[in-house]
Amino acid sequence: MNAQSMPMTVRPEDERATLSEVLRGHGVGPTHQRIEIARALFSRMTHLSADQVLAAVNQRHAETSKATVYNTLKLFVEKGLVREVIVDPTKVFYDPNTSPHHHFYDVETGEITDIDGDRISILGLPALPEGKVAAGIDLIIRVRGAA
Amino acid sequence: MNAQSMPMTVRPEDERATLSEVLRGHGVGPTHQRIEIARALFSRMTHLSADQVLAAVNQRHAETSKATVYNTLKLFVEKGLVREVIVDPTKVFYDPNTSPHHHFYDVETGEITDIDGDRISILGLPALPEGKVAAGIDLIIRVRGAA
DNA sequence: GGTGAAGTTAGACAGAGTCCAATTCTTATC
DNA sequence: GATAAGAATTGGACTCTGTCTAACTTCACC
Ligand SMILES: [Mn+2]
Ligand SMILES: [Mn+2]
Ligand SMILES: [Zn+2]
Ligand SMILES: [Zn+2]
């Protein structure tokens, strides 16, 4: 499931039911907190830090603790619902887009932008180190505002 | 300057004089602490975290504070003596190899290995976002021990 | 409705990195 | 070589991200 496959507008209770199914489909038991965290990520379809998720989820009423946000994000990563993006030395970002893709990263503003994965090809990669297996390829184009 | 351009064996006082010149050549005033930090990086030619630099420099006698290590590494990055490598969400690594190159990163052991930059080509990159200028391209191949 | 497992939580804790005012070095000049 | 002014270093307090734990709550199932 991804955000594009959801209708543009949904009744809130339908959205929560849909998210429940998505979670179940990935082997994650749906709870109130997990659904809200999933909603924060999938409704925005942007790259959010744990702190931003925590703030988003507790916008209206305090609903979810810091510990649960961290527990849940780790669980979502394990279950393949979201992906970690490591570009900023101070915090991890969580990416609801799990299709293979790369990133622009503005080192001044912190803005992260997707680069479609299937337009890019990387040639000339050497063999992996002996006994190692690939776990992911991250391409980050660091940019800044023109001088 | 890089480690390869130095003779295999040097008298310690020659090595320090050489490093002094390297620092001056990059607009960095040489001090005891900066020379020791440069030596830690350039004599090993590996990717070290700030903590590892601190430990290396204080191996024999306590010579350098944590604050100075951080100050100095930041200065070295600004002056182009070393480069930051951002692959581990918990700490920055400092890379004395400033020629364009990429990295294998073992997510289990933390080991970082260089990939020669001029064997790699990356095709199909989209135009940079409007008004932005490239600041660097980081390609990280994440690996782990075969399952 | 009762029971055990799964999930949540406050708050203590750890580690990386920053900051500051006081002190010590470096370097240029005499 | 002594002097003085600017540059660099320092301990330690502080911030921030993330982890951990033991108590508590909720959920699934009978
Ligand atoms: Mn950090
Ligand atoms: Mn961190
Ligand atoms: Zn993305
Ligand atoms: Zn390297």
Could you characterize the architecture of this molecule?
The structure is a homodimer of 147-residue chains. Chain A is α+β, with helices and mostly antiparallel strands and 147 residues long. Chain A folds into two domains: 12-92, Arc Repressor Mutant, subunit A (Orthogonal Bundle), CATH 1.10.10; 99-143, no CATH class. Chain A contains four helices and seven strands; from the N terminus they run ααβααββββββ. In chain A, the strands form two sheets. A three-stranded antiparallel sheet of chain A has the order 1-3-2. In chain A, α1 (12-25) crosses α2 (32-44) and α3 (50-57) packs across α4 (66-78). The model of chain A has no long low-confidence stretch (mean pLDDT 92). Chains A and B meet through β2, β5, β6 and β7 of A and β2, β5, β6 and β7 of B. β7 of chain A pairs antiparallel with β7 (132-145) of chain B. One manganese (II) ion is lined by residues 89-90 of chain A. Chain B binds a DNA duplex (30 and 30 nucleotides) through residues 29-34, 49-51, 64-68, 70-72, 89-92.
Summarize the structure.
Two copies of one chain form a homodimer. In chain A, a hairpin with a 5-residue loop joins strand 4 and strand 5 (112-116).
Q: What are the SSEs and their pairings?
A:
The structure is a homodimer.
Chain A: H1 12-25, H2 32-44, E1 48-49, H3 50-57, H4 66-78, E2 83-88, E3 91-95, E4 101-106, E5 112-116, E6 121-123, E7 132-145
Parallel strand pairs in A: 4-7
Antiparallel strand pairs in A: 1-3, 2-3, 4-5
Helix pairs in contact in A: 1-2, 2-3, 3-4
Bound molecules: manganese (II) ion (MN) (2 copies) and zinc ion (2 copies).
Chain B binds a DNA duplex (30 and 30 nucleotides) through helix 2 and helix 4.
